[in-house]
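Bumping with the actual sequence this time:
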Amino acid sequence: MTHIENIPHVLKHGITHKNSPNKNEKFVTIGDVSLIDVRATKSVQVDNGDFQNINAPSIILGDFIPFYFGTRMPMLYVMQNGGNFVKRATPAQDIVYLKCLLVDVIKSCKTYFFSDVHATDKYVTFYDKSKLAELPNLIDWDAVKSSYWGREENLNIKRKKQAEFLVSDDVPANCITAFGCYNEPAKQKLVAFGIEASKIKLIPEAYF
């Protein structure tokens, strides 16, 4: 997910890392800045589920571009409505989904990992490429697709819904197979940016 004003840069340079030489100097942030700050220095172990492996390598979350596996995430709710440390609420029509196929991202990026729940969760497990074939069974797809995750009794669904795929490299624009948006005005703005109408999907149900 990104702000619609970031799309021209994405079309030219792809989805760029904050430390990339091609980074967007005018990037419009819509996320929780406190969480972004936490991820910038948070070290996590990639133990592939072997909790006794004290020698498992560590990575810094902020060194990677994060992707979700689904839509209508808890973070999107905060983006649209404000709260936490989101600078300001962003209207749904200004938020765009960038859809990438996993196989394309893997071909384009050298280093990648994935988690089974939210990357900053206390009980998260991280996996490397050696576990890629097991990814379909390690992600809770019912949770990812769940439309309701509120209240204390659903915290586990909320955790699992926010599983992530992390890549270390910029993701080329040709890896983006579709752009999801909220309404027709947003679609027309994307078309004006030069995106083929056939690649733009109206998905209002993926917003709050």
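The tokens above came from a reply further down the thread. The first strand starts at residue 2 and ends at 3.
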